[in-house]
Amino acid sequence: MDEAATAPIPVLLQRPRWRDTFSSLRIHNYRLYVISQAISNTSGWAMRIAIDWLVFELTGSVTLVGITVALQFGPMLFLGPLGGVIADRYPKRRLLVTTQAVNAAACATLAVLTIAGVVTVWEVFATALIMGCTAVVDSPARSVFVNEMVGHDRLGNAISINASIFHLGGLVGPAVSGILIAIVGAGWSIAANALAACVVVVTLLSMRSSELLPSLVAKRSKGQIREGLRYALSKPTIFWPTVMLAFVATFGMNLPVMLVAFADHVFGSGAAGYGLYSSAAALGALAGSIASTRRMGYRLRSIMLAAGCFGLTIAASGIAPVVSVFLLCLAGIGFTRLLFATAAESIVQMSSNRIIRGRVMAIYAMVVLGGQAIGGPLMGWLAELWGVRAAMVFSGLVPTLAAIVIALLLARSGRLTLRLRMRRRIIPLTVEVRGQLG
C-alpha cells in the first residue's frame, strides 16, 4: 500500500454552536443508526450483566463471572486483526446485518432456557462465546460504516456520538439489567437483547441506500494483517492512545465485575443496589458525552490526563467509606471514562485512512475487548484474594501510573505535538511529528 493510500483523511474541526452539538443527527440514515445502536448497546450491556449475574447465581463464584467476561471479549483478542481484514474487504452494512442476526438467535435461545429454568452454566458460556465471535467482525465494521453515513465533514462529531453511545450503554445497560433482574429475573433481560438485535437488523435494512457514501474496499492480497499492524505502529497518534487504552481496558473497564462484588460483599445491597451504582456511573457518563461532542481538538497529553483522572476516581471509589461517597466516585468514573474514550477513539480514527481503517479499528477494538477479557478474570481473582476494596484501588492505580509514565515520555521526547490553527473560525487538525518514533 503506497503512502497516498494510507495518508490521514483531512479533517476540519470547528467549535459547534450549542444547537450544532449533535449535528450528525440531521442525517437521516445516521439518525436511524444512532437510535438502533442506543437500543442495541444498552440492551447488549444489560445482557452481559444479566449473564454475569446468572453465572454468579448458578455457581456463586466471582472467578467464573470473570471467565464469562473473558469468553465474551476473548475472541477479539485472538481474531481481531482478521475481523479488520473482513471489514475492509466486504460491504459494511451486509456484515452488520449478519452479525446482529446471529446475536439475535443466540440470545433468544439462551433466554428461553433461562426463563424455563433449565439453563446450565455451559449454555451461558456458549452464548458468551458466540457473542464474542460476532464482535470480531461487528466492531470494526461499525466503526467504518459511520463514514459511509455522515461523510468527512461530520465524522469527528459522529465518532464522539458513537463512542458516547458505546460507553453510555456500558453504564446504563447494567442499571437497566439490575432493575430487570430484581423484578423479573435475568432471562427477560437476555430476551430484551434478542429483540434489540432484531431492531438493528430492521433499521439497517430500512436505510436509504442512495444516501450512503461509496465505501472503499480493499482488494484481497497477502500480508494485509501485517500491513495494518505496521500502519498502526508507525503513527504516534494511533500508537500511544492504543498503548494507554491497553492499561485502561485491562484494569479500569471491568467495573461490572467489581460492582457485583461491591453490591454483594461490601454494602449488601443486592441487585437493586447494583443497578443504583451503575446508574450513578451512567449519569457521569452522560455529562462526559455532552462535553466530548463540544471538544475542538485532541492532544495526546490531554488524553493521558483524562486517563489518569479516570484511574484516580476508580481508586477513590475503592476506599469510599459510605454509599453516598461511593456514588459520587462512580459518577466521576463515568465522566472521565467518556472523556478519555471519545478522545482516544476520535484521534485514532481520524489518523487513519478509510482503505485501512477497518484493520486499524480492529486493533483498537482488540485492545478494548481483549483487555477486558484479560482483566475480567484477573480482577475477579484479585477481588477474591485481596478483597474487593483493595482490588478496586489497584485497578485504578495501574492506569494512573501508566498515564503518568506515557505523559512524561511524550514531554521529554517532544516527538509529537498536535497544533490547532485558527482560520476564519475553522480549525484544521494538523499533526506535527518531530524526530522518529522509537
TrEMBL record:
Species of the source: Leifsonella bigeumensis
Protein name listed in UniProt: MFS transporter
Membrane topology note: Multi-pass membrane protein
Entry-linked PROSITE patterns: MFS
PANTHER family: INTEGRAL MEMBRANE EFFLUX PROTEIN-RELATED, STAPHYLOFERRIN A TRANSPORTER
Signal peptide (residue range): none
Record key words, sorted: Cell membrane, Membrane, Transmembrane, Transmembrane helix, Transport
Superkingdom of the organism of origin: Bacteria
InterPro entries in the cross-refs: MFS_dom (IPR020846), MFS_trans_sf (IPR036259), TM_effector (IPR010290)
UniProt-listed Pfam families: MFS_3 (PF05977)
Localization, UniProt: Cell membrane
Entry keyword Transmembrane helix: yes
UniProt-listed Gene3D superfamilies: MFS general substrate transporter like domains
First-listed, main subcellular location of the protein, grouped into a coarse class: membrane
Stretches assigned to the Major facilitator superfamily (MFS) profile domain: 1-414
Transmembrane regions listed in the UniProt entry: 62-83, 238-262, 274-291, 303-319, 325-348, 360-382, 388-411
